[in-house]
Design goal:
single chain; about 130 residues
């Protein structure tokens, strides 16, 4: 029994991160985005609209490709980490967090003039 206790503790405490792509996700059209997200999506590469802030954005270099930086979000209240490195398919580099949802455009370059044609992926960070 004692031999299994330490590995179990390490396994339990060590699994405090998730790949964003493995979370529950929904495809959302621009017109269906919350108003708060629409107001910010074209302005910056990252913004959290929540008050008080619930997430911290960090970047981490790839081990084999040091010129590539992966975006990581850490939830403030419990330290849970969400990694964006495994997102499959085309997606932009704009990240908006509102409530417990992460919104990422499904297009590399987004412009307000073409906004009605854009789709976004909403990831549930709960």
């Amino acid at each position: 029994m004692k031999r299994y206790f330490l590995p179990l503790i390490i396994l339990t405490l060590g699994c405090n991160s998730s790949q964003v792509d493995e979370l529950e996700k929904t495809i959302v059209a621009y017109q269906d985005l919350p108003t708060e997200v629409k107001q910010q999506i074209f302005k910056v590469s990252y913004i959290e609209i929540n008050e008080p802030k619930r997430y911290v954005k960090k970047t981490k270099k790839e081990l084999l490709f040091p010129w590539i930086y992966n975006v990581i979000f850490e939830r403030v209240n419990d330290g849970k980490v969400f990694k964006t490195s495994g997102i499959k398919g085309e997606h932009g580099s704009t990240y908006v967090i509102y409530d417990d949802f992460l919104y990422i455009p499904n297009h590399y370059n987004i412009y307000p003039s073409d906004s009605l044609s854009y789709l976004f992926t909403r990831f549930d960070l709960k």
